[in-house]
Amino acid sequence: MVPHIPISTIMTKNIIAISPREDLDRVEMLFNRHKIKHMPVISHGVIVGMLSFTDLMRISFAETAPEGSRSVNSVVYNAFTIEQVMAKDVVTVTSDTSIKDVAKLLADREFHAVPVVDDGEPVGIVSSTDLLYYLVKQI
């Protein structure tokens, strides 16, 4: 494996992001429609949080839903805002950060995704799944 391949070579460039004012029902729909598990929360062009599908499941009655069901009760969503559910202390990397350094960051911090930001602008997102696909290609 080459020691310093930039994360930009494997990151997802078309970011699906949300506003802190977004409705949680719509957020769940975005997770399902785009088959993603993490979304940056962006306010005025700045990442202010990260929301994962798991974050939504924590506030839902998902354990009572039939197995394989991803739908949750809208009533529960109306009791929370994105700002209450999202992770606020967001760690970011730049597009020239090495794949190895990002993998170490995800492993050490127990994250599953990290936004990629250059000059204050969100330019991508990389997930543990992206890293696994990269690893599989190397073998």
UniProtKB/TrEMBL annotation:
Signal peptide: none annotated. PROSITE patterns: CBS (PS51371). Residues 11-67, 86-139 form the CBS domain. InterPro entries: CBS_dom, CBS_dom_sf, Diverse_CBS-Domain. It holds the Pfam family CBS. Keywords: CBS domain. It comes from the Bacteria. SUPFAM superfamilies: CBS-domain pair. This is CBS domain-containing protein.
